[in-house]
Structure formats: C-alpha cells, structure tokens
Give the backbone structure.
Amino acid sequence: MEYQTLLVEKKAGYTIITLNRPDKLNALNALLLLELAEAAGSVRNDDSTHALIVTGSGTKAFAAGADIAELHEQNAETGAEFARRGQQIFSNIEHIGKPVIAAVNGFALGGGCELALACHVRFCSMNAKFGQPEVNLGIIPGYGGTQRLTRLVGAAKAAELILSGNIIDAQTAASIGLVNSIHTSEELLPFAEKFAQTVAGKAPIAIRAALSAILAAGQTAADAGMETEARHFGVVCGTEDFAEGTAAFLEKRAAVFTGK
Ligand code: COA
C-alpha cells in the first residue's frame, strides 16, 4: 500500500516504517497518524513480520512532535479527543504483540518522544535529542508522555523534563534509561535491523507472551503482574515451539520455530 506520509519497507522477518515528512521534521499530523495506525495494523496482521522498526526520514529528526499548525486549531471541546486519538494509536502500537524498536535519528520531541516511548526499545543516533517541550506551547504531553515517561525514568526525572520543556542529548537520555544505546548515524538502522532479526528468530508466541508480561509490569500491582507472568508461562509451555526449543537444546542443534 502507498502512503503519503510514511515509507513502509518489508524485509525478511520484520518491517520498517519510516515517518516521511522531512520538510516538517516528520511532525505528526492527522494524516500521518491515520497512516501510521493503518500501517501498524498491517504489521499486526502479517504473520511473516515478527518485529517492527519505527524511524524518521532524513538525518535531522525522528519526529519533532505533533503538528503545531493542527494543534493550534484545538480548543476545550476538541482537545481531549485529539489526545485520546493519539493515545489510542500509540497504545495499539505498544500492544501490537511483536517487538517494536524505535530508531531515533535526531529530534524526538513532544509526540515524537511519546511515539518512541510507546516502542519497546529505543536506539538512537549521537545527534538525537529528546524532550517534552509542550509547556512552551501552553499545553502538556497528550499522547501518553506523562504516563510512559514517568514509568520509564521515574517521577522526578519526568517532572524535570515535562515541567521545564528542556531538551536533552543522547548521552543524558541514555543515562536516565530513556534510550537503550547510542550509535553513529550510519550504524543506527543496521543495529536496529540486527536486533529485529534477532528477535524475529525467536518463538513468536513466547515473544508475544514476554511483551505482554513486561507491559503488565507497568500497569498492574506486583502480585497481579506475577500472576500474568505465570499464566503466560503456562501458555508457552503448551506450544510446539517450547517442545522444539527444549528438544533442540538437549539434542545440541539449532531450534526451528514454527510459531505454533
Ligand atoms: N509541527 C509542525 N511543523 C514543524 C514542527 C512541528 N512540531 N517542528 C518543526 N516543524 C517545521 C517548521 O515549522 C519548519 O517548517 P517551514 O520550513 O515550513 O517553516 C520545518 O519543520 C523545519 O523546522 P525549523 O524550526 O525550521 O528547524 P530548526 O532546525 O530551526 O529547529 C526544532 C528544529 C525541532 C528545534 C524546531 O523545529 C522546533 O522547536 N519544533 C517544534 C518542537 C515542539 O515543540 N514539539 C512539540 C509539539 S507538541
């Protein structure tokens, strides 16, 4: 399918979605969000795609936030729905059931940072910059930033970023756990692709169960999270891939997973 604001590239075992409005630093307008939702839905339903990479076109930005021209049109009646729509799309990406990797190649500001936060891992380039500068516009993060950033880096660091609107560099982002690792611009996508290939080679049902249990950690009390883990553990113990994975180890050969 052709998109106006995205490039979608299907590789062996994984898909790359590139936000593609480089002249606007890949700002997230309504069309881009709609197309992102559609493209992510296709990835969810594609049994031959086992991981998703999200990145931005050009060398300057992952995404410089929600489109401020569109934001400017919001009012007290429309604002909450505007936020809910974006939240829902990012939440669907987070719960896509396959690893989602953000390859952050430049600015990840506002909604761009929130999109990266909805991904399960974040790799970035040395020139990456992160921030939630919404207060500079008289608003607050509306696509999940107050919740996901707080859970990821803790309330004090999240408050520092959200209340000041300060923009931080890649090193600082790594030091607070906002990104997993930093790479040269040339190496960023190859590194993300290598990670995608690694996870795409694992048993898909186990990967989906692991993601679901990890996400439960941020949303439930510890006891309930433990129960979620045990329930998923039971499910994966009933899969053919579990029988294959353990048999392959005992027979000293590589496992061949079928996703069953
Ligand atoms: N929404 C709409 N357009 C945006 C945008 C956004 N969030 N971020 C950048 N753009 C546009 C600019 O308006 C400009 O368009 P133009 O060439 O038609 O004038 C183009 O992208 C390039 O941006 P520019 O500001 O000229 O680049 P810069 O290198 O001088 O500055 C930033 C880069 C990221 C610091 C700056 O663009 C910025 O502050 N963007 C807004 C960040 C923000 O507040 N995001 C949160 C939104 S909730």
